Amino acid sequence: MLYCNKYRIESARLPHWDYRSNGAYFITICTHDRINRFGTIEQGNMTLSSLGVIAEICWHDIPIHEDGVTLADYVVMPNHIHGILIVNDSVQTPAIDNGPTKRISPVVETLHATSLPTAATFLPISMHEKMSIMSPKPDSISTIIRSFKSAVSKHAHRLGYKFQWQTRFHDHIIRDSEEYDRISYYI
Description:
The protein is an alpha+beta fold. The chain is 28% helix and 22% strand. It has a four-stranded antiparallel sheet, sandwiched between helices. Strands 2-3 form a two-stranded antiparallel ribbon. Strands 6-7 form a two-stranded antiparallel ribbon. The N and C termini lie far apart (43 Å).
C-alpha cells in the first residue's frame, strides 16, 4: 500500500447512518474552485448558462435513474446547486442491528458482497475488501450524487466545455418538518 491510509481524508458522512434510508436529504454540490459555471444572477434572477441548463436537466433526470427518489425544492446557482432529495423506497426491511433500514436488492454486486472480518479473524484484509468497506453503497445518496455529477461532466465535456466539480458534496439529513420548511425556504 502506497500511503497506508496516512493521507486518507475522513468521510463527511454521518457515521452509522445508512444513506439508503428513507428520508429527506439537503444536498449542496459546488463547482471546482467555486468558479461560476452555471450562469449569473441578474437583477435578483438566476440566468442559466449552457452548463447550468445541463445541470438542471440532469438534476431533473435523477428520479428516472433512481427508483424511490423524488425531487423537492432545488436551485441552480452560479457555482453550486442546492436541492432536497427524498428517498422513499417502499422495498425496505429493518436492519439486522435495529438501526436504520436497508434496501433489499435483487442484484448482488460483487464489490459490496464482501463480508466484514470478525474479531476472531487475524488474516490481513485484502485491498478489495478495504475498498468494499469504504465504497458508497448502491442506491445511497453518495452514488446518486456521483451519478449526477458524472452525467453533468460527461455532457459538458462532450460539448467541449472545460468543467470540473469540487471533489466532495455536503449533505444534511432533514430530521423534521420544521427543519424541512426552513431549508425549503432557504432554497
